[in-house]
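S2.1 Query sequence (Cytidine deaminase)
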Amino acid sequence: MASTADHLSAQELETLSSKAIAAKATAYCPYSKFRVGACILTQSGEYVQGANVENASYPVGTCAERVAFGNAIVAGHREFKAIAVATDIKPAASPCGMCRQFMSEFTTPSFPIFMYDGEGNYSLTTMGELLPHSFGPKDFSH
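Output structure tokens follow.
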């Protein structure tokens, strides 16, 4: 799996991880107390953060990954290099199914996803590994 991260420099990975971990502090999670932070590295070298935002009506809450991608899309970004997702648990949590589908809209199967646990250790996977046989823009004929 290391090859999926080969296009990131050590500095990019360090910044990506520190910003994802820091984003946990901005989470609004009064019900679950489950903090999640995320940070996307865009192809243009910008870092875009997100955190989970809960709601008293549980299904209305938004995950950190979708907040980060929403922030990036609204800011005009369309090409992404990697994402880091950070939680307080061990082992690290992976993006939920809804986030996997959402992220697949804007990424490729080789897109790297770094998942950080509460101690700052990470595991690495790809979009294709998290959501094989995905459905997306390529499935629409125009």
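The chain has four helices and five strands. The radius of gyration is 14 Å.
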